[in-house]
Amino acid sequence: MAGSDKRKQSLYFPEDMLKEIQEEATRQDRSLSWIVQKAWKIARKEIMKYPSVNEFPGEDDEREAAE
Questions:
Q1: In 10 A of CB 38, how many CB atoms?
Q2: Rounded to whole angstroms, how far apart are CA atoms 34 and 23?
Q3: Which residues form the domain of 21?
Q4: In the chain, pLDDT over 70 holds for what percent of residues?
Q5: To the nearest 10°, the Cα dihedral for 4, 25, 13, 34?
Q6: pTM (2 d.p.)
């Protein structure tokens, strides 16, 4: 990680998901934090494709039609 900024943050996971993450961390002999960080790095490009809560499906189409 760039710079090693270590801010503490609480994250909440459904019990079943947390159990899976813990099992994988144990299997890999890694921390929960390491597993979640790697999962984010792998998934972030896909997640960034999701619209924000302020975006509406088809909004771009309507703007283009008005121009």
A1: 13
A2: 13
A3: 15-46
A4: 79
A5: 10
A6: 0.67
Q: Quick one: DSSP state of residue 2? A: -
Helix axes 15-28, 32-47, angle to 10 degrees: 110
For residue 22, is it within any domain? yes
- In sequence order, which residues have a C-beta less than 8 Å from that of residue 24 and are 6 or more positions away? 35
Q: Range with the lowest mean pLDDT among 1-5, 9-13, 17-21, 55-59?
A: 1-5
Counting Cα atoms < 13 Å in the Cβ hemisphere of 24 gives: 13
- Distance between CA atoms of residues 22 and 16, nearest Å: 10
Q: Is 33 among the domain residues?
A: yes
